[in-house]
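Q: Hi! First time doing this. I have a protein sequence and I read that you can turn it into a structure. Is that right? Here it is:
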Amino acid sequence: MAATVYFDHNATTPVDPVVLEAMLPWLSGRFGNASSRHELGRAARQAVDEARYKVAAAVGAHVTEVVFTSGGSEANNLFIKGAAAALKPGVLAVSAVEHPSVIKPAEQLARRGWQPIRLAVDGEGRVDEAAYRQALSLKPKLASVMLANNETGVLQDVAALADTARDSGTVFHTDGVQALGKMPLDFRALNACGVHALTLSAHKLGGPKGAGALVLDKGIGIEALVAGGGQERGLRSGTENVAAIVGFGAACELATRRLADRAVLLGALRQRLEDGLRAQGAILFGGGARRLPNTVSFAISGFDGETLIAHLDRAGFALASGAACSSANPHPSHVLAAMGVPDGLARGAVRMSLGTGNTQEEIDAFLVALRDTAAKLQRLTAFAVVPTTLETE
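A: Yes, that's right. Below is the predicted 3D structure, encoded as structure tokens:
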């Protein structure tokens, strides 16, 4: 059986062999609790500290600003709920294309007196300027706008948005989970523009699942979601997942070193893919906006996305219809809905997210498989629709 060609790197990435090698000792002989004071515990604490330094260095932050979590979803919840708990209720603005781990906590806060509002986006998925200025007139206390969308790859000008919000006194957060390792990130520069917090995750850039971070301006007060032993400056109690944190640090170090080459490789692969998709009549979502170099969201009119994905999976290609975290949701993508994409077309959405292990040959093979699959489905549909001349009396 031929190996599956993996085109779902925005969902998760394979663990890089260098990362795995760095993690293995902390899964066996080096098993100490990082809060213990004996030798094994001190070694674990040092490993966590070194990983924190590597994560901070990858995004231009100070080590004291990095709070480790179990992943991006927890980090997003920690900021949204934690910052809200430290403030009196008010307006909370999030973009309409955010990850569910931002949108759902914002909705939950409505039960605590907060007024969540969604920032409209244009047809390319970028925050609409007029709608944003109108939202700022409400003086939102909190705002969250992602750097790069997980479904379309569309980039937001977060620095400009945060700078505009400063006069409103808004505490501004950005979800950088998909951006890390695919584009340069500089928290110090973002912070100077008014960004107070940044979410990161390890498993999107060759690291393990189960490790993430909230990079937080130390001048911003938030309340912990998990109380207990006081780990992570009291903001995230619980015994640290040392092996995963070590892997996170190693993945960040690798991603920083490979960033420029990675962007060139992925950009070339994406261009080859998009040229082939357009030749088959595909519609690209967010195609006119600045995007991540690895992400393509498309539909072919008349075809259901889930059906295409199932057939292509059997042909040996792993793809997605949208966010992996919401794959059980039968409704069309909220991201595409916010962009004004009609439901019928949105139900045809397919997301391809490339990795550095992908090749031009795999892109070409996928395009052939897609053409053949579409032709097969057309024949099946034509065969299933049998006209009748019978009339009832």
